[in-house]
UniProtKB/TrEMBL annotation:
This is Ketol-acid reductoisomerase (NADP(+)). Its cofactor is Mg(2+). SUPFAM superfamilies: 6-phosphogluconate dehydrogenase C-terminal domain-like (SSF48179), NAD(P)-binding Rossmann-fold domains (SSF51735). Keywords: Amino-acid biosynthesis, Branched-chain amino acid biosynthesis, Magnesium, Metal-binding, NADP, Oxidoreductase. Pfam families: KARI_C (PF01450), KARI_N (PF07991). It comes from the Bacteria. It is an enzyme of class 1 (oxidoreductase).
Length: 325
């Protein structure tokens, strides 16, 4: 893969071996790159990385002498990790990479002037970035350059993206655009929007007295099959495959569910992302020890929809439920 040449002979470090960290590391390793992972000593991910045959060092040691450092700890952990282990160990002219622009865009990390700063943001969850790569395909990536003192930071970002995403496609963006669109997408559509939609559909059917297993298949399980068609062929082909009855109901009812009020709310959500209010609220939440998030997690893990889903997955996957994590 000629596009990877710019990384050859460079010392590559990935900080973190979680969802994105394991995917970037293993995909590039499979392509022959020499990587070191920087982690906290004695952690679970240290053990996992070593088991996968990856070189592991303490973060400060892994950053020292590295030419390219990809920063893949959770966003909220990055400022302290940068301050305590990264900043003073980055060599002059090193390339510091991110998979999301949060800390640079909201100025929670102000990188030293002596380093290059870039982003490679795969447009997919880390476990899928790895699984799709292993099947010989790739996930597209957004790339951006924030600081370019060496004059070739774009080439480094493109090479990293081509490796992690197997050259399926790169779109150039900015830290601002990636940060704001990524936060909006995950909150309003991909995660928050979709799960609330499925939950509301499930609850409506169950409250009306229908069998929860039927409700689950209708409002959750079949979502993947419909979305797979949109993913592979677009809205029109999906609508071509469903019945005319479904297509008519789609046009008529979709707009009753996603109303002008919903679109207005989407604009407000985007506004709070743009003006930094969401970032502030998220950081405040992490400082409480994730009080609200822990409550939500336990509420959902004890919910009817998850209980029924677990049973349905046992049936569909014959006791060997798919588990990416
Ligand atoms: N998750 C995803 O699919 C996507 C994530 N991103 C971005 O990628 C970045 C990484 O996110 P993600 O992969 O979800 O992160 P994870 O939560 O999966 O990262 C976990 C890894 O970070 C380490 N880590 C956690 N806290 C600390 C700390 N305080 N000090 C040192 N190491 C720590 C963990 O080590 P330990 O075992 O020691 O806890 C573990 O190796 C973020 O910027 C995110 O926005 C972008 C696209 C998609
Ligand atoms: C959709 C959530 C995401 O933005 C992602 C997997 O792309 C994330 O932050 O995890
Ligand atoms: Mg994303
Ligand atoms: Mg995101």
């Amino acid at each position: 893969m000629t596009e990877l040449k710019v990384l050859e002979g460079k010392k590559l470090t990935v900080i973190g071996y979680g969802s994105q960290g394991h995917a970037h590391t293993l995909n590039l390793k499979d392509l022959g790159m020499d990587l070191t992972v920087g982690l906290r000593e004695g952690s679970k991910s240290w053990e996992e990385a070593e088991k996968a045959g990856v070189k592991v060092k303490k973060i400060s040691e892994a950053v020292k002498d590295a030419d390219v450092v990809m920063f893949l700890t959770p966003d909220e952990a990055q400022p302290a990790v940068y301050e305590n282990h990264v900043k003073d160990n980055l060599k002059e002219g090193a390339y510091l990479g991110f998979a999301h622009g949060f800390n640079i865009h909201y100025k929670k990390i102000v990188p030293a002037g002596k380093v290059n700063v870039f982003m490679v943001a795969p447009k997919g969850p880390g476990h899928m970035v790895r699984e799709i790569f292993e099947k010989g395909h790739g996930v597209p990536c957004l790339t951006a350059v924030y600081q370019d003192i060496s004059g070739d930071t774009k080439e480094v970002a493109d090479a990293w993206a081509n490796g992690v995403g197997r050259k399926v496609g790169i779109i150039e963006t900015t830290f601002k655009e990636e940060t704001e669109t990524d936060l909006f997408g995950e909150q309003a559509v991909l995660c928050g929007g979709v799960t609330e939609l499925m939950q509301a559909g499930f609850d409506t059917l169950v409250e009306a007295g229908y069998n929860p297993e039927v409700a689950y298949f209708e409002c959750v399980h079949e979502m993947k099959l419909i979305i797979d068609m949109v993913y592979e062929k677009g809205f029109a082909k999906m609508r071509d495959s469903i019945s005319n009855t479904a297509e008519y109901g789609d046009y008529v009812t979709g707009k009753k569910i996603i109303t002008d009020k919903t679109r207005e709310t989407m604009k407000q959500v985007l506004g709070d992302i743009q003006n930094g209010q969401f970032a502030k609220e998220f950081i405040d939440e992490t400082e409480t020890g994730y009080k609200f998030m822990k409550g939500e997690r336990s509420k959902y893990s004890d919910s009817k929809i998850e209980e029924v889903g677990s049973k349905m997955r046992q049936m569909v996957f014959k006791g060997s439920a798919k588990n990416h994590m």
